[in-house]
Amino acid sequence: MQIKFRHVRTFLEVARTAAIGKAAAVLNVSQPAVTRTIRELEEALGAAVIEPDGRGIRLTAAGEAFRRHAGASVAALRQGVDAVRAAGAEAEKPVRAGALPTVSARVMPAAVRRYLAEMPAGRLKIVTGENAVLLDQLASGGLDLVVGRLASPERMVGFTFEHLYSEQVLFVVRAGHPLLDRSPFDVAEMAKFPLVMPTATAIIRPFVERFLIAHGLPDPGARIESVSDSFGRVFVRDSDAVWAISEGVVIGDIASGALAALPIDTSETRGAVGITLRADAERTPQIQALIRAIRAAAPQPAPTPDQ
Questions:
Q1: What is the pTM of this model?
Q2: Which domains, and CATH codes, for the chain?
Q3: Residues 58-88: pLDDT tens digits?
Q4: Cα(161)–Cα(278) distance, rounded to whole angstroms?
């Protein structure tokens, strides 16, 4: 069949206006061009679709039958075009990911490399901040996902959480710090030095406070509250302060020897780290690709002794 879109479009306009002249004006073509197009359509169909009706025209029985299907086909075509355009617009929008400082340092660099390997033209926006702030942005639609510690149950209403790994809080100091020479080590010794600890709204703050109280240090003396890993890293490196921080933030500094973890068992501060999403959110191909990249970049659990 040699029916083309111009045949269908011209026919539908003629059927709508019931006049060749009016259809020509709407289509911005000449009346002979409209007549010629209708004749081509009738030849392809093997049936007349219009007939004279006073000064205008009306559809034949064949024309009425064809209009029902022609209208549906044009509507479906428009939906297809709109879907392609929407997909293109969605692909141009950046995936907006929130990440706690520990995740920004430990997981996101490798995850972004993996994401770009799968999506070479992909666009990302990485926002780092406190867990409460990131979850608020996620709830309002300002972020597409958040990677961080599992929040309290009342904060998880409307969200889903996918566990990736667990990590704990460490107390770290600069290389050569006086506390590193204490043997055996006494946690009470930390009270002699300034303590850099997370702010009251930081998700690890309750873990740190419970640990200090459990070890007889409810008020460790000089205290600096901050969630800035840049400040903490420089301040601790250049002073005798102790820094209470998630291990993911300083794992590289410890490996390089710039910082050292005090010999304290902080396993009680261990918490789940994972991906938080809105329960009703659409997972676009771009978001799904980033989730796969984050999963692959997350630390893998240590094998059990019998593995």
A1: 0.64
A2: 5-91 (1.10.10.10), 93-166+271-297 (3.40.190.10), 169-269 (3.40.190.10)
A3: 999 998 999 888 888 888 888 887 777 766 6
A4: 9
pLDDT at 184 (0 to 100): 86
